[in-house]
Design brief:
The complex is a heterodimer. Chain A is mainly α. Chain A has one domain. Chain A is 78% helix and 0% strand. In chain A, helix 2 runs antiparallel to helix 3 and helix 5 (129-144) packs parallel to helix 7. The radius of gyration of chain A is 19 Å and the shape is elongated. Chain B is of the alpha+beta class. Chain B has a single domain, classed as Winged helix-like DNA-binding domain superfamily/Winged helix DNA-binding domain (Arc Repressor Mutant, subunit A). Helices cover 55% and strands 18% of the residues of chain B. Chain B has helices at residues 15-26, 32-39, 43-55, 78-98; strands at 30-31, 59-66, 69-76. In chain B, strands 1-3-2 form a three-stranded antiparallel beta sheet. In chain B, strand 2 (59-66) and strand 3 form a beta hairpin. The longest helix of chain B has 21 residues, at 78-98. Chain B is elongated and about 55 Å long. The chains are: A mainly alpha, B alpha+beta.
Chain lengths: 200, 99
């Protein structure tokens, strides 16, 4: 047996182990687009409200409705672009064990955070909503990174850190949302594309 | 050079069997259809290779019904895990001796 042949065999094994246990169809461009959308929405809210402090229930209502719209649009973008990427690289895109694990690990923290925010809105404790969304989103990313690109955890750490800093500051919700969901996604999306999707 | 190949396991000479073991090392359990599409095999091909691994005690095969559909899933045994690791070790040390 040739040396090269052995190396090929080992690479095949590694590839197969990765392909069978990780969902690799997530597209870097979709992360970038989510970042751009989030930035646009933040900018819109900023100009709509006149400044970045969200300090009245009315302002919060506008912001929360916009944020929910953005959330749906973001999921749709990521999902559709993952489907297209899978198709382009002839990867599997079915509800198999890997995808199920990815979705469960992502949506359990997300739903927990979402319900917590719902309770806070209901009790009109708006102050911590921005940090809670960032913290739970960060935890969801860290949690699901085991079943996709492991690098997703770094985006998770950034979101988590921003959320924790935001806890200690008052009135900067919009700014931290812009940093966490806008800037962080744009930067990560570009790094992701350069690192994993170039010349493929 | 032949001496270096001592640790290699005959059962894993086939690419398909090595593939099955690789997939099972990375996953708790994998069902028949997923395995088939991952390795791009036909039903009969996968079944016969899986059976030979099962006879060696390297993998175990669980057959059950989901609704009315029969569903076969495979998982690796401790023996299989040890055999696979030894095989990889042998491959790695082969490369090291070559350098």
């Amino acid at each position: 047996m040739e040396n090269k042949e052995v190396i090929n065999t080992l690479n095949d094994i590694k590839d197969l182990m990765e392909r069978s246990s990780k969902f690799k169809a997530i597209s870097g461009l979709s992360i970038l687009i989510v970042g751009v959308l989030a930035s646009l929405v933040s900018a819109f809210i900023y100009f709509f409200l006149g400044d970045y402090t969200i300090n009245t229930p009315f302002k919060w209502k506008i912001t929360i409705i916009m944020a929910l719209g953005l959330l749906l649009l973001a999921f749709l973008t990521v999902f559709v672009m993952a489907y297209l990427k899978a198709k382009r690289h002839s990867m599997r895109f079915t509800m198999d064990a890997t995808m199920r694990k990815l979705l469960i690990n992502f949506f359990v923290p997300m739903l927990a955070g979402g319900l917590l925010c719902l309770a806070l809105v209901q009790q009109q404790h708006y102050g911590l909503i921005s940090s809670i969304t960032l913290i739970f989103y960060g935890l969801a990313l860290i949690n699901c990174s085991h079943f996709s690109y492991p690098a997703l955890r770094y985006l998770g750490y950034v979101e988590l850190a921003l959320g924790l800093i935001d806890c200690f500051l008052v009135d900067y919700a919009l700014l931290f949302w812009f940093l966490g969901f806008g800037v962080a996604h744009i930067v990560f999306g570009i790094i992701f594309m350069l690192k994993y999707e170039r010349s493929k | 050079m032949i001496a270096n190949l001592d640790g290699l396991n005959k059962a894993f000479e086939s690419k398909i069997r090595l593939g099955i073991m690789s997939v099972l090392m990375a996953n708790e359990s994998v069902d028949f259809t997923t395995m088939k599409s991952l390795l791009e095999l036909t039903d009969g091909n996968l079944a016969s290779h899986a059976r030979s691994l099962e006879e060696l005690g390297y993998i175990c095969c669980e057959k059950k019904f989901i609704g009315r559909k029969p569903n076969t899933s495979y998982s690796i045994t401790d023996l299989g895990r040890a055999a696979f690791s030894a095989h990889i070790q042998a491959l790695a040390s082969f490369i090291n001796t070559q350098q």
